[in-house]
Structures are given as structure tokens and as C-alpha cells.
Amino acid sequence: MQSIIPSGSTNGRPIAISATTSPGTVIHTCTSTSGETDEVYVWLSNIDSSSREVTVQIGGTTTADQWIVGIPAKQGGVLVVPGLRLNGGAVIRAFCATANVINATAIVNRIVD
Predict the structure, then answer these.
(1) Would you tell me how many other CB atoms lie within 10 Å of the CB of residue 14?
(2) Which domain holds residue 22?
(3) How far is CA 58 from CA 24, 27, 51, 95, 113, in A?
């Protein structure tokens, strides 16, 4: 297993969720290499003074691919993707009705079979 920087991040820094509708801001695009799987953890933080509802899209944009989570005001480190194992180029995205008040951080562990 190898830890890698999420593809939507610059140098491992938090990712500002700028998308306000679907499709969301890319947090990570999983491996599409045969024999590899990405184990993905995502935390969200809300830097705003109001609670925010965030839609996390896991692998697609249909309702079956979406988790809707509430992030309290001025709250950091809310785990929203708890180590899901994905491959096939699945993309994890998020959007919020208000741009740039939600930040995502992630850990990606690449597993080689």
C-alpha cells in the first residue's frame, strides 16, 4: 500500500469546494489501473458562520451516487468518506450551495493486488 496525494489537491493542501451544483469539485479521481484500488478518506471543514449542506458524489452524479451531509458552522474535520475502496477511474466530488466555504482534505491509500 502506498499513500498518495488526492488528485484534486495541490501538494496535499485542502481543496476549496467551489462548485455550487452537480457535477461537484473534484476531490480525487481513483486509479483505473488493473490490479489497483484506492482506499479514500475525506474530511470536510466549514469555514463559514452558517451550517452548510454538502453533496458528496461517489463515482457518479445520479442520486444513488450521492451522500448529503450537514457540516456545522466553523467546524473542521468531519469525516464524510470513511475509507471506501474504489477503482475504475471513479471520481469523488462535492458541491455546496455556497462556493468556497467548504474545504476538503483527503487521504488516499493505493492498494496493489
Answers:
(1) 17
(2) 2-112
(3) 10, 10, 22, 12, 22
pLDDT digits (tens), the chain, 113 positions = 999 999 999 999 999 999 999 999 999 999 999 999 999 999 999 999 999 999 999 999 999 999 999 999 999 999 999 999 999 999 999 999 999 999 999 999 999 98
CATH for 100: 2.60.120
Phi, psi of 50 (to 5 degrees): -120, 145
For the entire predicted model, the pTM comes to 0.97
Query: What is the count of structural domains for the chain?
Result: 1
**Residue 112 to residues 8, 31, 95, 108, 109, Cα–Cα distance (Å):** 21, 10, 30, 13, 10
